[in-house]
Amino acid sequence: MTSPTQATTATFSLPYQPVGAPMYEYRQVAENLAKAVDTALASRAVSPPGASDLLAVATRVNALEADQAAEDTARAPATVTMAANFAQFTTAPYGELLRAWKPNPAEARVSGLAIYTGTGLVASSTAVNVLTLPAGYRPDVQLLRSCWQQSGASPPNWHRVQVTTAGVVQVVFGSALATNQFVQFDFGFRLVNAA
Questions:
Q1: Exposure of 182 by Cβ count < 10 A (0-12 exposed, 13-18 middle, 19+ buried)?
Q2: Is 90 exceeded by the pLDDT of residue 19?
Q3: pLDDT digits over 111-158, tens only?
Q4: Judgement on whether residues 66 and 84 belong to the same structural domain of the protein
Q5: Residue 119 belongs to what domain range?
Q6: 123, 111 Cβ separation under 8 angstroms
């Protein structure tokens, strides 16, 4: 009696037991199959057909995984260095640190609050250093941006921001800044400003 499996796999010449042999002779079937595999390996290349394609796919997957790991590292927030008389604004219940990060390899962003810890800063056209961006997060040309500062219920005041090629973020305060007032930064820029 022919089993359904034998009938559907006969075209592949698998080493089944002869027709009519008991189906419980699985050991013999396994031995016959092992012999057929050994014969095939002995008469053909050790690498199965398509092995080079599989190797190319594996290489590409490894490269993509490495790229993703590098991108994840680049997107992680980077610590900035606060200048004299400025600090991270972490007064409870707030805790958002001022950080720089890269949403993509060609762009950097700066976001967060800096609090003024000095004794009073008068309005002036002189730029004041607030923080320094880490290497790798600095523009190749000097940039102009803006930020705002607020005190209590008063309307916010806008100020000019300068970002130097050394990564120094400076603010030209158009109005006085009292102790414990904060400055909000939220801007981005291209790392390379090619023509």
A1: buried
A2: no
A3: 999 999 998 888 888 999 999 999 999 999 999 999 988 776 777 888
A4: no
A5: 76-190
A6: no
